[in-house]
Amino acid sequence: MERITRCKIGGLGIIILLAICFLFPLPVKAAEPYHLGVVLGLTGTGAMYSRDGKNAIEMAIEEINKEGGFLKKHPIKLFIRDDQTKPDIGVREAKDLILREKVKCILGTYSSAVGLAVEDVCYEYKVLHIPAISNTEAMTVDNYSPYTYQVVPNTYMQAMGQVIGISKYAKQKGWKSFASIGSDYEWGHSTVNYFVDNMKKALPEFKLAKQYWPKLGETEFSSYITAVIGDKPDFVYAALASKDNIAWMKQAKPYGFFDKFPYACLISVTEMVEMKDELPRGVIGETRAPFFAHLDIPMMANFIKNYRAKYNEYPSDWAVMEYDAVYALKQGVEKAKSIDIEKVKNGLKGLTVNTTRGKLYFRKIDNMLNCQSYIGIIADDPKYPFPIYKDLVIITGEESWRPESEVPGVREKSGLAKKRKPEELKF
Amino acid sequence: MTGSQIFSQFLSGVSRGMILFFISSGLTLIFGVMNILNFAHASFWLVGAYFTWTFWKIFYSPAFGLWISIPLAALTMAGIGWIIEVILIRRVYERSLPEQLLLTYALVLVIGDVIKLTWGVEDRIVTRPKGMDGFINIFGAPFPTYYIFVIGLGGFVAWGLWWLLHKTKFGRTVRASVFSREMVGALGIPVHRIYAGVFALSLFIAGLAGGVQAPISSITLGMDMSIIVECFAVVVIGGFGSLPGALVGSLIVGLVYAFAILIIPKMALVLIFVVTAIVLIVRPWGLFGTPMRA
Predict the structure, then answer these.
(1) How many CB pairs below 8 A link A and B?
(2) A218: which chain B residues are within 8 Å (Cβ-Cβ)?
(3) N or C, which terminus of chain B has less Cβ within 10 Å?
(4) pTM score, two decimals?
(5) HEC profile of A248-281
(6) A168-178 burial, b if ≥16 CB within 10 A, otherwise e?
(7) Does position A24 have pLDDT exceeding 60, yes or no?
(8) Is the pLDDT assigned to residue B116 strictly greater than 80?
(9) ipTM here
(10) Measured between beta carbons, which residues in chain B are less than 8 angstroms from residue A281?
(11) Which pLDDT band, with edges at 50, 70 and 90, does A298 fall under?
């Protein structure tokens, strides 16, 4: 009796299942969704910049998905991971994104150390990589990977941009001598030395008067400030690590330092907004992608409008670049007419893309976008609740990037041939 | 090199010295009275700065915020000091120096993590109060008004400590217990309470110093370790346990640093320790210390 019932129920089950299959046939198979991974330093030192980047990526994806996704048929599915600004965690998260979520491209990375680590993971698994905040030149030159495309002016371009921008100001204003102050460690020394060496070439009559090297983590700069004031240079070049730079600015300002000396350091839109009261006016800043430099480009104007509507703030450099990264990828997909990784990779090679910063192209030898660096003088602007740059100098990618002829030499030194296939290094 | 340049370098050296004095006075007080080398003293200073930030945020007011926050932070630190003395420090008076160092160094690490958990890893910024964010000219040398306050408060702390130790009953008891703890105890004075009071007082000054430091730079993790080394140089030069020594030592370190920057900037930090080494060779107990205590 029992057995019969079981058979009956089993049979009935099968019939019902079959009926369901016939009654509700599966919908027409939708095109495969595009899995897009993001690795950013959402906690740790990079949290503030990374948050903006994440916001911009989410907004770009929303816009594209409204049209049906990539090629109007591949909806984008976003997978966001936090690398805690640590390379080992970045590698773990990148691998997990590739193996488990089957992402076809990884955007992001705040820290250059994480960026380099993720670049190698992406190369190993043949996945696209667009590191849109971190900008060490090594990612495109020393450690080049055919899968990595870069939309941020790299360290070389930013340094060269400073030299070009400052020498323009020096000529305009008739400066004769400058002093340098750099944190006493590797980055501080290499940045200052690079600037001094290239300035010598660009404008030999602009002389280095004196150099100062406060220790890393210095909290009391007054003796340096009075010493520099005593030297009376026309210009002061600084490479102070972030916290030290804030301390320096806070302490130099009450001395009236910035009224007397033009002084250059890195100031992005984030700092302009966050330090709007503290930031000394008249300081020369350099940054990577300030929105106010390209208000005349419709894509930028739209982006600012929508970003403000969604997040109630102006987009920082980091938001601009991550947004451009998504749209560069979109145009690569359109060029390839497919979401296949290899095809998109080849589609992006040398491609000219529309970005919020204008029509720009990826250089073939290093997949570096010819994006601009921006130098200006911090000043209040009635249009914004925070200071922006005035007397903006825009240095083009071609002016500032490493000449193509130098690239193979750097790669030989870094031993890239051992890590990549020979055909990948032919251009 | 003009006169006004030398003068402004002198002033900046004195300001730097005063900040060092704030920390090293507490360090030397704890060592002099309790015979404990408090490696964590600068960490308490940093916690004081973070508390100042917290109070400053609560009582947000550009003109008065800081003037309320600094004393509050100092009082909070004094309270924390009392508790830490009772729970931890009290247990190691009779132990050897390495064991005491181990405890206070462990405190550095614990405090570092507590700061991370409480205030996070971001830099905290306190702005200078209105009216103290500019500079005045003293004999042609620009000098920030805030540093006048720093130097003034430093002088007041030095005087206040001297008065407390030499003119009050509390001070006399403290000085007596330096020489003979047992005798003071035998007279019916609760020595452990005196010790807790001294520790709390030292942390009160550390809190005050942290509050004063808050608007000078940004408040960041790791600041404590970068300043404690200089504070040790100060107390070595001035003599362990000597308050006048801490004052003179701080000024020496501040001024040596300031003038080294003017003349040979690359050697500034090294010169401080050259001076320290010379003092150690010539007068191992420091300028104001006594051979007995060294």
Answers:
(1) 106
(2) 226
(3) N
(4) 0.74
(5) HHHHHHHHCHHHHCCEEEECCHHHHHHCCCCCCC
(6) bbbeeeebebb
(7) no
(8) yes
(9) 0.82
(10) none
(11) very high
User: How far does the CA of residue A255 sit from the closest CA of chain B (Å)?
Assistant: 6
Residue B118: HSE in the Cβ half-sphere, 13 Å Cα cutoff: 15
Nearest CA in chain A to B268: A214
pLDDT in tens, B129-166: 888 888 888 887 888 899 999 999 999 999 999 999 99
Q: Which two tokens stand for residue A41?
A: 């330093």
pLDDT exceeds 80 at position A395: yes
Which positions in chain B touch A278 (Cβ < 8 Å)? 125, 127
- Chain A contact probe: residue of B8, B145, B269 with most A CBs at under 10 A: B8
Closest in A45, A219, A222 to B226, CB measured? A219
DSSP A176: -
Domains and CATH numbers, chain A: 34-154+295-372+403-425 (3.40.50.2300), 156-288+374-400 (3.40.50.2300)
Average pLDDT value for chain B: 90
Look at residue A28 and tell me whether its pLDDT is greater than 50.
no
Ranges of each domain in chain B: 19-222
List the 47-106 stretch of A: residues with Cβ below 8 A of B: 47-48
DSSP of A96-148 = HHHHTS--SEEEE-SSHHHHHHHHHHHHHHT-EEE--S---GGGTTTT--TTB
Measured distance CA(B144)–CA(A127) in Å, rounded: 56
